[in-house]
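Box S2. Input/output pair 1.
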Amino acid sequence: MRFLQNLSFAAAALCGLSLAASANGGIPEAGSLLIYPTFENGRGDDTLITVTNTNGDHTPTVGTLEAGTVDVEFVYIDGYDCIEFNRTRRLTPNDTITVSARADDPNDVEGYVYVFAKSPTTGAAISWNWLIGVERTVEGGSSDEDFDVNPYVFKAVGAQGSNTDLNSDGNRQLDGLEYEAAPDRLLIPRFVGQGNGNESELTLINLTGGGQFTAIVDFLIYNDNEEVFSAQYSFFCWEEVDLEDISGLFDQDFLESTNHNLSEHALGNEYGWFRLDGNIAFSTADSELDPVILSMLAENIGVGDGGELPFGEGTQTNGEVLSFSIFHP
Protein backbone atom coordinates (compact mmCIF):
# COMPACT_ATOMS: atom_id res chain seq x y z
CA MET A 1 0.00 0.00 0.00
CA ARG A 2 1.09 3.56 -0.60
CA PHE A 3 0.84 6.26 2.00
CA LEU A 4 -0.30 9.83 1.47
CA GLN A 5 2.41 11.90 -0.17
CA ASN A 6 2.94 15.28 1.38
CA LEU A 7 3.52 17.96 -1.26
CA SER A 8 4.37 20.63 1.26
CA PHE A 9 7.87 21.58 2.28
CA ALA A 10 9.34 19.21 4.86
CA ALA A 11 9.50 20.84 8.26
CA ALA A 12 13.04 19.77 8.92
CA ALA A 13 15.83 17.92 7.15
CA LEU A 14 17.31 14.69 8.42
CA CYS A 15 20.68 15.08 10.08
CA GLY A 16 23.46 12.75 11.16
CA LEU A 17 27.11 11.90 10.90
CA SER A 18 28.44 10.49 7.65
CA LEU A 19 29.74 6.95 7.57
CA ALA A 20 33.45 6.73 8.18
CA ALA A 21 35.58 6.28 5.10
CA SER A 22 37.33 2.97 4.60
CA ALA A 23 41.00 2.53 5.37
CA ASN A 24 41.67 2.86 1.63
CA GLY A 25 40.48 6.45 1.31
CA GLY A 26 36.83 5.76 0.52
CA ILE A 27 37.39 2.87 -1.91
CA PRO A 28 35.13 -0.12 -1.07
CA GLU A 29 37.00 -2.94 0.63
CA ALA A 30 36.55 -6.71 0.60
CA GLY A 31 34.22 -8.24 3.18
CA SER A 32 32.54 -11.44 4.36
CA LEU A 33 28.96 -10.66 3.32
CA LEU A 34 27.89 -9.29 -0.07
CA ILE A 35 24.32 -8.11 -0.76
CA TYR A 36 23.41 -7.76 -4.43
CA PRO A 37 20.36 -5.48 -4.62
CA THR A 38 18.59 -7.15 -7.52
CA PHE A 39 18.32 -10.15 -9.77
CA GLU A 40 16.03 -10.43 -12.78
CA ASN A 41 14.91 -13.77 -14.22
CA GLY A 42 11.87 -12.65 -16.23
CA ARG A 43 11.37 -13.39 -19.88
CA GLY A 44 14.50 -12.30 -21.70
CA ASP A 45 16.09 -11.05 -18.46
CA ASP A 46 19.15 -12.28 -16.61
CA THR A 47 21.61 -11.18 -13.95
CA LEU A 48 25.24 -12.31 -13.84
CA ILE A 49 26.56 -12.49 -10.28
CA THR A 50 30.31 -12.53 -9.68
CA VAL A 51 32.04 -13.42 -6.40
CA THR A 52 35.83 -13.36 -6.08
CA ASN A 53 37.98 -14.71 -3.25
CA THR A 54 41.01 -12.41 -2.98
CA ASN A 55 42.79 -14.58 -0.40
CA GLY A 56 45.87 -15.98 -2.15
CA ASP A 57 47.19 -18.30 0.57
CA HIS A 58 48.05 -21.67 -1.04
CA THR A 59 49.49 -23.17 2.16
CA PRO A 60 48.20 -26.77 2.54
CA THR A 61 46.03 -27.39 5.60
CA VAL A 62 43.68 -30.40 5.80
CA GLY A 63 44.35 -32.91 3.04
CA THR A 64 44.31 -31.07 -0.28
CA LEU A 65 42.58 -28.03 1.25
CA GLU A 66 44.56 -24.80 1.02
CA ALA A 67 44.51 -22.11 3.70
CA GLY A 68 42.99 -19.54 1.33
CA THR A 69 40.01 -21.72 0.39
CA VAL A 70 36.50 -20.69 1.42
CA ASP A 71 32.94 -21.81 0.75
CA VAL A 72 30.40 -19.17 -0.23
CA GLU A 73 26.65 -19.56 0.05
CA PHE A 74 24.44 -17.85 -2.53
CA VAL A 75 21.05 -17.00 -1.02
CA TYR A 76 18.40 -15.88 -3.53
CA ILE A 77 15.52 -14.00 -1.89
CA ASP A 78 12.27 -14.00 -3.84
CA GLY A 79 11.03 -10.42 -3.98
CA TYR A 80 7.38 -11.43 -3.68
CA ASP A 81 7.38 -13.57 -0.53
CA CYS A 82 10.98 -13.37 0.76
CA ILE A 83 11.40 -17.16 0.51
CA GLU A 84 15.02 -18.15 -0.05
CA PHE A 85 16.82 -20.54 -2.39
CA ASN A 86 20.40 -21.56 -1.56
CA ARG A 87 23.49 -22.87 -3.31
CA THR A 88 27.03 -23.29 -1.92
CA ARG A 89 30.23 -23.09 -3.95
CA ARG A 90 33.89 -23.56 -3.07
CA LEU A 91 36.42 -20.88 -3.99
CA THR A 92 40.10 -21.77 -3.87
CA PRO A 93 42.75 -19.04 -3.33
CA ASN A 94 42.33 -16.17 -5.84
CA ASP A 95 39.35 -17.99 -7.36
CA THR A 96 36.34 -16.28 -8.94
CA ILE A 97 32.93 -17.46 -10.08
CA THR A 98 30.24 -15.84 -12.21
CA VAL A 99 26.80 -17.43 -12.28
CA SER A 100 23.67 -16.73 -14.26
CA ALA A 101 20.81 -16.12 -11.84
CA ARG A 102 18.41 -17.37 -14.48
CA ALA A 103 20.17 -20.75 -14.59
CA ASP A 104 21.13 -20.83 -10.91
CA ASP A 105 17.64 -20.10 -9.54
CA PRO A 106 15.16 -20.62 -12.40
CA ASN A 107 12.12 -20.75 -10.09
CA ASP A 108 12.24 -17.13 -8.85
CA VAL A 109 11.50 -14.19 -11.15
CA GLU A 110 13.13 -11.32 -9.25
CA GLY A 111 14.44 -10.27 -5.88
CA TYR A 112 17.87 -9.86 -4.30
CA VAL A 113 20.86 -12.08 -3.50
CA TYR A 114 23.25 -12.21 -0.60
CA VAL A 115 26.48 -14.21 -0.46
CA PHE A 116 28.40 -15.00 2.71
CA ALA A 117 31.58 -16.84 3.59
CA LYS A 118 31.44 -20.29 5.23
CA SER A 119 34.05 -22.63 6.62
CA PRO A 120 34.93 -25.34 4.06
CA THR A 121 35.33 -27.83 6.92
CA THR A 122 32.39 -27.05 9.26
CA GLY A 123 29.94 -25.17 7.01
CA ALA A 124 29.57 -22.43 9.64
CA ALA A 125 29.40 -18.77 8.66
CA ILE A 126 32.83 -17.26 9.22
CA SER A 127 34.75 -14.01 9.13
CA TRP A 128 36.49 -13.95 5.76
CA ASN A 129 37.11 -10.37 4.70
CA TRP A 130 38.45 -11.27 1.27
CA LEU A 131 35.25 -11.37 -0.80
CA ILE A 132 34.51 -8.87 -3.57
CA GLY A 133 31.94 -8.97 -6.36
CA VAL A 134 29.84 -7.27 -9.02
CA GLU A 135 26.58 -7.96 -10.84
CA ARG A 136 25.44 -7.27 -14.39
CA THR A 137 21.71 -7.03 -15.04
CA VAL A 138 20.41 -7.47 -18.58
CA GLU A 139 16.73 -6.81 -19.15
CA GLY A 140 15.21 -7.82 -22.46
CA GLY A 141 11.97 -6.67 -24.05
CA SER A 142 11.11 -2.98 -24.28
CA SER A 143 13.28 -1.89 -21.33
CA ASP A 144 16.56 -3.13 -22.85
CA GLU A 145 18.54 -2.21 -19.72
CA ASP A 146 22.11 -3.42 -19.34
CA PHE A 147 24.30 -2.20 -16.48
CA ASP A 148 26.79 -3.23 -13.79
CA VAL A 149 26.50 -2.41 -10.10
CA ASN A 150 28.61 -3.41 -7.10
CA PRO A 151 27.07 -5.21 -4.12
CA TYR A 152 26.80 -3.80 -0.63
CA VAL A 153 29.85 -5.15 1.24
CA PHE A 154 29.88 -5.87 4.98
CA LYS A 155 33.01 -6.90 6.82
CA ALA A 156 32.76 -9.47 9.59
CA VAL A 157 33.84 -8.09 12.95
CA GLY A 158 35.59 -11.11 14.48
CA ALA A 159 39.04 -12.54 13.76
CA GLN A 160 39.52 -14.05 10.33
CA GLY A 161 38.18 -17.60 10.22
CA SER A 162 36.10 -17.22 13.39
CA ASN A 163 32.39 -18.04 13.50
CA THR A 164 30.12 -15.02 12.96
CA ASP A 165 26.79 -16.45 14.15
CA LEU A 166 27.28 -15.30 17.73
CA ASN A 167 23.68 -15.87 18.82
CA SER A 168 23.26 -19.14 16.85
CA ASP A 169 20.06 -17.97 15.13
CA GLY A 170 21.18 -18.83 11.59
CA ASN A 171 20.90 -15.19 10.43
CA ARG A 172 23.58 -12.66 9.52
CA GLN A 173 23.25 -9.69 11.92
CA LEU A 174 24.38 -6.24 10.74
CA ASP A 175 24.81 -5.15 14.33
CA GLY A 176 28.48 -4.26 14.68
CA LEU A 177 29.10 -7.56 16.47
CA GLU A 178 28.66 -10.21 13.78
CA TYR A 179 29.03 -7.93 10.74
CA GLU A 180 29.44 -4.20 10.27
CA ALA A 181 26.42 -2.07 11.05
CA ALA A 182 24.29 -0.89 8.13
CA PRO A 183 23.85 2.75 7.09
CA ASP A 184 21.02 4.56 8.86
CA ARG A 185 20.00 6.85 6.00
CA LEU A 186 20.66 6.65 2.26
CA LEU A 187 21.48 9.55 -0.05
CA ILE A 188 20.87 9.36 -3.80
CA PRO A 189 22.98 12.10 -5.43
CA ARG A 190 20.86 12.52 -8.57
CA PHE A 191 17.54 11.71 -10.13
CA VAL A 192 16.21 12.98 -13.43
CA GLY A 193 12.71 14.41 -13.74
CA GLN A 194 10.37 11.59 -14.71
CA GLY A 195 8.42 11.70 -17.95
CA ASN A 196 9.31 12.67 -21.53
CA GLY A 197 11.05 9.31 -22.02
CA ASN A 198 12.91 9.38 -18.70
CA GLU A 199 12.20 6.44 -16.42
CA SER A 200 13.95 5.47 -13.19
CA GLU A 201 13.34 2.50 -10.92
CA LEU A 202 14.22 2.41 -7.23
CA THR A 203 14.99 -0.94 -5.64
CA LEU A 204 14.10 -1.14 -1.94
CA ILE A 205 15.16 -3.91 0.49
CA ASN A 206 13.89 -4.19 4.06
CA LEU A 207 16.50 -5.78 6.33
CA THR A 208 14.67 -5.36 9.65
CA GLY A 209 12.35 -8.35 9.99
CA GLY A 210 12.34 -8.53 6.20
CA GLY A 211 10.66 -11.94 5.97
CA GLN A 212 7.57 -10.91 7.94
CA PHE A 213 7.65 -7.11 8.29
CA THR A 214 6.27 -4.35 6.07
CA ALA A 215 8.44 -1.22 6.04
CA ILE A 216 7.45 2.42 5.70
CA VAL A 217 10.14 4.64 4.15
CA ASP A 218 10.41 8.43 4.48
CA PHE A 219 11.70 10.47 1.55
CA LEU A 220 13.11 13.99 1.48
CA ILE A 221 13.24 15.09 -2.16
CA TYR A 222 15.26 18.15 -3.21
CA ASN A 223 15.00 20.11 -6.44
CA ASP A 224 18.01 21.89 -7.97
CA ASN A 225 17.42 25.01 -5.88
CA GLU A 226 17.58 23.55 -2.35
CA GLU A 227 13.80 23.26 -1.98
CA VAL A 228 12.79 20.10 -0.14
CA PHE A 229 9.56 18.09 -0.22
CA SER A 230 8.49 14.94 1.63
CA ALA A 231 6.84 11.66 0.72
CA GLN A 232 6.33 8.16 2.15
CA TYR A 233 6.17 4.71 0.61
CA SER A 234 5.55 1.25 2.08
CA PHE A 235 6.63 -2.15 0.81
CA PHE A 236 7.19 -5.73 1.92
CA CYS A 237 10.55 -7.52 1.70
CA TRP A 238 11.87 -6.22 -1.66
CA GLU A 239 10.40 -4.05 -4.35
CA GLU A 240 11.45 -2.44 -7.60
CA VAL A 241 9.24 0.61 -8.11
CA ASP A 242 9.14 3.50 -10.59
CA LEU A 243 10.00 6.82 -8.96
CA GLU A 244 6.79 8.36 -10.27
CA ASP A 245 4.81 5.60 -8.50
CA ILE A 246 6.43 6.61 -5.22
CA SER A 247 5.49 10.26 -5.67
CA GLY A 248 4.65 12.86 -8.31
CA LEU A 249 7.40 14.95 -6.69
CA PHE A 250 9.87 13.12 -8.94
CA ASP A 251 8.10 14.20 -12.16
CA GLN A 252 9.60 16.65 -14.65
CA ASP A 253 6.39 18.70 -14.71
CA PHE A 254 6.36 19.10 -10.94
CA LEU A 255 10.02 20.11 -10.78
CA GLU A 256 9.44 22.73 -13.47
CA SER A 257 6.60 24.17 -11.37
CA THR A 258 8.87 24.74 -8.36
CA ASN A 259 11.30 27.55 -7.74
CA HIS A 260 13.99 25.67 -9.62
CA ASN A 261 17.31 27.02 -10.88
CA LEU A 262 16.93 27.92 -14.56
CA SER A 263 20.68 27.64 -15.15
CA GLU A 264 21.01 24.11 -13.76
CA HIS A 265 19.84 21.61 -16.34
CA ALA A 266 21.23 19.08 -18.82
CA LEU A 267 19.71 17.71 -22.01
CA GLY A 268 16.54 19.65 -21.27
CA ASN A 269 15.87 17.69 -18.07
CA GLU A 270 15.22 18.78 -14.51
CA TYR A 271 17.32 17.08 -11.84
CA GLY A 272 17.22 16.65 -8.08
CA TRP A 273 18.44 14.40 -5.29
CA PHE A 274 16.86 12.65 -2.33
CA ARG A 275 17.33 11.10 1.10
CA LEU A 276 15.50 8.01 2.25
CA ASP A 277 15.19 6.64 5.77
CA GLY A 278 13.27 3.76 7.29
CA ASN A 279 10.43 5.06 9.46
CA ILE A 280 8.93 1.88 10.94
CA ALA A 281 8.63 -1.81 10.12
CA PHE A 282 5.76 -3.90 11.44
CA SER A 283 4.45 -7.46 11.40
CA THR A 284 1.19 -8.89 12.67
CA ALA A 285 2.66 -9.02 16.18
CA ASP A 286 5.55 -6.54 16.49
CA SER A 287 7.01 -3.29 15.21
CA GLU A 288 10.48 -1.77 15.01
CA LEU A 289 11.36 1.89 14.60
CA ASP A 290 13.99 3.03 12.11
CA PRO A 291 14.38 -0.18 10.10
CA VAL A 292 17.42 -0.79 7.89
CA ILE A 293 16.65 -0.10 4.24
CA LEU A 294 19.00 -0.73 1.32
CA SER A 295 18.35 0.59 -2.18
CA MET A 296 19.61 0.97 -5.74
CA LEU A 297 18.56 3.45 -8.43
CA ALA A 298 18.41 2.29 -12.06
CA GLU A 299 18.00 5.08 -14.61
CA ASN A 300 17.04 5.27 -18.25
CA ILE A 301 17.38 8.89 -19.35
CA GLY A 302 17.43 8.45 -23.12
CA VAL A 303 21.22 8.52 -23.45
CA GLY A 304 21.95 5.17 -21.80
CA ASP A 305 21.16 3.11 -18.74
CA GLY A 306 22.93 2.86 -15.43
CA GLY A 307 22.64 1.61 -11.88
CA GLU A 308 23.99 3.26 -8.76
CA LEU A 309 24.19 2.51 -5.06
CA PRO A 310 23.48 5.36 -2.65
CA PHE A 311 25.81 7.04 -0.20
CA GLY A 312 25.33 6.28 3.49
CA GLU A 313 24.76 8.48 6.51
CA GLY A 314 24.95 7.33 10.12
CA THR A 315 24.76 3.71 11.30
CA GLN A 316 21.97 1.36 12.27
CA THR A 317 22.35 -1.94 14.17
CA ASN A 318 18.92 -3.62 13.81
CA GLY A 319 19.44 -5.14 10.35
CA GLU A 320 19.91 -8.78 9.41
CA VAL A 321 19.59 -11.25 6.53
CA LEU A 322 17.16 -12.81 6.93
CA SER A 323 14.66 -13.34 9.76
CA PHE A 324 11.23 -14.94 9.26
CA SER A 325 10.01 -14.39 12.79
CA ILE A 326 6.98 -12.16 13.40
CA PHE A 327 8.95 -10.78 16.37
CA HIS A 328 12.06 -8.68 15.90
CA PRO A 329 14.82 -9.58 18.38
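Box S3. Input/output pair 2.
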Amino acid sequence: MPYSIVTDHPECSGYAVIKDAGRELMGCHKTQEQAERQLTALNIAEYGDREETPDIEIRQSYKPTAGMIEEAKRGLAWRREFGRGGTAIGIARARDIANSRELPIETVRRMSSFFARHEIDKQGEGFSPGEDGFPSNGRIAWALWGGDPGKRWADAIVSRDESRVAKALTILTQLKKMV
Protein backbone atom coordinates (compact mmCIF):
# COMPACT_ATOMS: atom_id res chain seq x y z
CA MET A 1 0.00 0.00 0.00
CA PRO A 2 1.28 3.51 -0.66
CA TYR A 3 0.36 4.82 2.83
CA SER A 4 1.80 4.03 6.26
CA ILE A 5 1.47 4.97 9.91
CA VAL A 6 4.59 6.26 11.62
CA THR A 7 5.34 7.73 15.03
CA ASP A 8 8.46 9.66 14.11
CA HIS A 9 7.20 12.26 11.64
CA PRO A 10 8.72 15.69 12.43
CA GLU A 11 5.40 17.52 11.95
CA CYS A 12 3.33 15.27 14.25
CA SER A 13 3.32 14.18 17.81
CA GLY A 14 1.51 10.88 18.07
CA TYR A 15 0.55 8.94 14.96
CA ALA A 16 1.13 10.26 11.44
CA VAL A 17 -0.35 8.85 8.25
CA ILE A 18 2.08 9.38 5.41
CA LYS A 19 2.22 8.68 1.72
CA ASP A 20 5.19 6.34 1.35
CA ALA A 21 6.55 8.08 -1.74
CA GLY A 22 8.26 11.18 -0.34
CA ARG A 23 6.82 10.69 3.17
CA GLU A 24 4.11 13.28 2.46
CA LEU A 25 2.04 13.92 5.58
CA MET A 26 -1.60 12.96 5.13
CA GLY A 27 -2.76 13.52 8.73
CA CYS A 28 -1.79 13.63 12.41
CA HIS A 29 -3.72 11.65 15.04
CA LYS A 30 -3.74 11.31 18.81
CA THR A 31 -4.51 7.60 18.71
CA GLN A 32 -3.41 4.70 16.55
CA GLU A 33 -7.08 3.83 15.93
CA GLN A 34 -7.70 7.25 14.35
CA ALA A 35 -4.61 6.83 12.17
CA GLU A 36 -5.73 3.36 11.11
CA ARG A 37 -9.14 4.70 10.11
CA GLN A 38 -7.54 7.36 7.90
CA LEU A 39 -5.21 4.76 6.43
CA THR A 40 -8.20 2.54 5.64
CA ALA A 41 -10.13 5.41 4.07
CA LEU A 42 -7.18 6.42 1.89
CA ASN A 43 -6.65 2.85 0.70
CA ILE A 44 -10.35 2.32 -0.04
CA ALA A 45 -10.50 5.61 -1.91
CA GLU A 46 -7.49 4.61 -4.00
CA TYR A 47 -7.92 0.85 -4.40
CA GLY A 48 -11.41 -0.12 -3.27
CA ASP A 49 -12.37 -2.74 -0.73
CA ARG A 50 -11.55 -5.87 -2.75
CA GLU A 51 -12.64 -8.27 -0.01
CA GLU A 52 -16.35 -7.48 -0.42
CA THR A 53 -16.67 -8.51 -4.07
CA PRO A 54 -13.51 -10.19 -5.30
CA ASP A 55 -15.14 -11.10 -8.63
CA ILE A 56 -15.11 -7.45 -9.76
CA GLU A 57 -11.70 -5.86 -9.55
CA ILE A 58 -11.51 -2.08 -9.15
CA ARG A 59 -9.61 -0.78 -12.15
CA GLN A 60 -9.61 2.11 -14.55
CA SER A 61 -10.82 -0.02 -17.47
CA TYR A 62 -12.69 -3.28 -17.92
CA LYS A 63 -12.53 -6.03 -20.52
CA PRO A 64 -15.82 -7.06 -22.18
CA THR A 65 -17.10 -10.59 -21.60
CA ALA A 66 -17.53 -13.23 -24.30
CA GLY A 67 -21.32 -12.80 -24.16
CA MET A 68 -20.99 -9.06 -24.74
CA ILE A 69 -18.65 -9.61 -27.67
CA GLU A 70 -21.10 -12.07 -29.25
CA GLU A 71 -23.99 -9.61 -28.84
CA ALA A 72 -22.00 -6.67 -30.24
CA LYS A 73 -21.00 -8.72 -33.29
CA ARG A 74 -24.63 -9.74 -33.75
CA GLY A 75 -25.71 -6.10 -33.54
CA LEU A 76 -23.12 -5.02 -36.13
CA ALA A 77 -24.21 -7.84 -38.46
CA TRP A 78 -27.87 -6.83 -38.11
CA ARG A 79 -26.95 -3.20 -38.71
CA ARG A 80 -25.16 -4.17 -41.96
CA GLU A 81 -28.01 -6.45 -43.04
CA PHE A 82 -30.93 -4.14 -42.26
CA GLY A 83 -29.25 -0.72 -42.49
CA ARG A 84 -30.96 0.52 -39.33
CA GLY A 85 -30.91 0.47 -35.54
CA GLY A 86 -28.51 2.19 -33.20
CA THR A 87 -26.61 5.44 -33.47
CA ALA A 88 -23.05 6.33 -34.42
CA ILE A 89 -22.15 6.09 -30.72
CA GLY A 90 -23.80 2.65 -30.48
CA ILE A 91 -21.85 1.46 -33.52
CA ALA A 92 -18.58 2.75 -32.05
CA ARG A 93 -19.40 1.02 -28.74
CA ALA A 94 -20.12 -2.24 -30.56
CA ARG A 95 -16.82 -2.05 -32.43
CA ASP A 96 -14.94 -1.52 -29.16
CA ILE A 97 -16.76 -4.43 -27.52
CA ALA A 98 -16.44 -6.74 -30.56
CA ASN A 99 -12.70 -6.01 -30.68
CA SER A 100 -12.44 -6.81 -26.95
CA ARG A 101 -11.09 -3.35 -26.13
CA GLU A 102 -10.97 -2.47 -22.46
CA LEU A 103 -13.59 0.15 -21.59
CA PRO A 104 -12.91 2.96 -19.10
CA ILE A 105 -15.20 3.36 -16.09
CA GLU A 106 -16.78 6.45 -17.70
CA THR A 107 -17.85 4.33 -20.68
CA VAL A 108 -19.12 1.58 -18.38
CA ARG A 109 -21.26 4.20 -16.61
CA ARG A 110 -22.63 5.40 -19.98
CA MET A 111 -23.46 1.81 -20.86
CA SER A 112 -25.38 1.33 -17.61
CA SER A 113 -27.23 4.57 -18.30
CA PHE A 114 -28.06 3.50 -21.87
CA PHE A 115 -29.51 0.20 -20.67
CA ALA A 116 -31.58 1.93 -17.97
CA ARG A 117 -33.06 4.35 -20.54
CA HIS A 118 -33.71 1.65 -23.14
CA GLU A 119 -35.04 -1.17 -20.95
CA ILE A 120 -38.50 -0.16 -22.23
CA ASP A 121 -37.43 -1.13 -25.77
CA LYS A 122 -37.72 -4.78 -24.71
CA GLN A 123 -41.51 -4.32 -24.60
CA GLY A 124 -41.66 -3.14 -28.21
CA GLU A 125 -42.76 -5.35 -31.08
CA GLY A 126 -39.88 -7.04 -32.84
CA PHE A 127 -37.54 -7.16 -29.88
CA SER A 128 -37.88 -10.93 -29.41
CA PRO A 129 -37.38 -13.66 -32.03
CA GLY A 130 -40.64 -14.75 -33.66
CA GLU A 131 -42.26 -11.30 -33.39
CA ASP A 132 -43.10 -9.21 -36.45
CA GLY A 133 -40.30 -6.83 -37.31
CA PHE A 134 -37.58 -8.82 -35.55
CA PRO A 135 -34.97 -7.50 -35.01
CA SER A 136 -36.46 -4.11 -34.16
CA ASN A 137 -34.35 -0.96 -34.12
CA GLY A 138 -34.38 -1.21 -30.32
CA ARG A 139 -33.15 -4.82 -30.42
CA ILE A 140 -30.32 -3.92 -32.78
CA ALA A 141 -29.29 -0.99 -30.58
CA TRP A 142 -29.47 -3.20 -27.47
CA ALA A 143 -27.14 -5.71 -29.12
CA LEU A 144 -24.70 -2.99 -30.19
CA TRP A 145 -24.18 -2.06 -26.54
CA GLY A 146 -23.51 -5.68 -25.54
CA GLY A 147 -27.07 -6.91 -24.97
CA ASP A 148 -28.21 -8.47 -21.70
CA PRO A 149 -24.66 -9.62 -20.84
CA GLY A 150 -23.49 -6.01 -21.28
CA LYS A 151 -26.26 -4.70 -19.04
CA ARG A 152 -25.46 -7.15 -16.23
CA TRP A 153 -21.72 -6.44 -16.56
CA ALA A 154 -22.03 -2.63 -16.63
CA ASP A 155 -24.58 -2.51 -13.80
CA ALA A 156 -22.39 -4.71 -11.57
CA ILE A 157 -19.30 -2.60 -12.15
CA VAL A 158 -21.13 0.70 -11.63
CA SER A 159 -22.79 -0.60 -8.47
CA ARG A 160 -19.45 -1.80 -7.12
CA ASP A 161 -17.77 1.51 -7.96
CA GLU A 162 -20.55 3.57 -6.35
CA SER A 163 -20.44 1.41 -3.22
CA ARG A 164 -16.67 1.81 -2.94
CA VAL A 165 -16.87 5.59 -3.31
CA ALA A 166 -19.75 5.88 -0.81
CA LYS A 167 -17.86 3.78 1.73
CA ALA A 168 -14.71 5.88 1.36
CA LEU A 169 -16.70 9.11 1.72
CA THR A 170 -18.38 7.81 4.87
CA ILE A 171 -15.03 6.94 6.42
CA LEU A 172 -13.54 10.30 5.45
CA THR A 173 -16.53 12.10 6.97
CA GLN A 174 -16.08 10.16 10.19
CA LEU A 175 -12.38 11.00 10.24
CA LYS A 176 -13.10 14.73 9.84
CA LYS A 177 -15.34 14.57 12.89
CA MET A 178 -12.60 12.87 14.90
CA VAL A 179 -9.80 15.30 14.06
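Caption for Box S3: The CA atoms of residues 63 and 162 lie 19 Å apart. The first helix runs from residue 32 to 47.
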